[in-house]
Amino acid sequence: MRAFQAAGLGLLALALGAAGPPPGDPDWPCAQRLVPKLTAATIWGGHEAAGDWRTDPPVAAVVAAVAPRGVSAQDGAGQVERFMATLPGAERPARSALLFAGLVDETNGQRAQVIERLRATARRQRSLTELTSKITAELRALPADAPAAQREEVTSRRAFLIREYEDIERTIRFACEVPVRMESKLGALAQALQRGLTD
Known about the structure:
Number of strands: 0
Distance between the termini: 70 Å
Radius of gyration: 25 Å
Shape: rod-shaped
């Protein structure tokens, strides 16, 4: 029983150490630095958008087709290049800027949702850590002659919490890659726009 307790505590401590949030932001569980909002200027050196991309129907249509997370970077880049090829050369700088502004806006909206879910998951994980610590203390405080059924009930509750913690840890490791992939896709789309300007 003591070996089981020690092993469970070790697993929990190891997971906590691996996923500890950076100082100053206890709700951010990822090793990657948190960038709450992306800006066009940090990703693409093209023209600054003049106006609202939503008022240009062809641009808005490309944004709607390319921005969803289910669209791969490769497919999105192809759609961007095909759109740029339809534009007269004189229009390309202004409309490419509008298009990229729309892609940044939509990506930021999606990233904000992912980031908030990650933060909520981190808060849940922290709550599980606290609950597990309390139940561990309860288990240790049981007298040596405590009924076996009572000891088993506390042990089962503790094991359930550890399993839930480990499930969340696996989810977080996967989910932390999502903002990174979204940024990478936006970079690929910026490259496609740049190619469209120079072709």
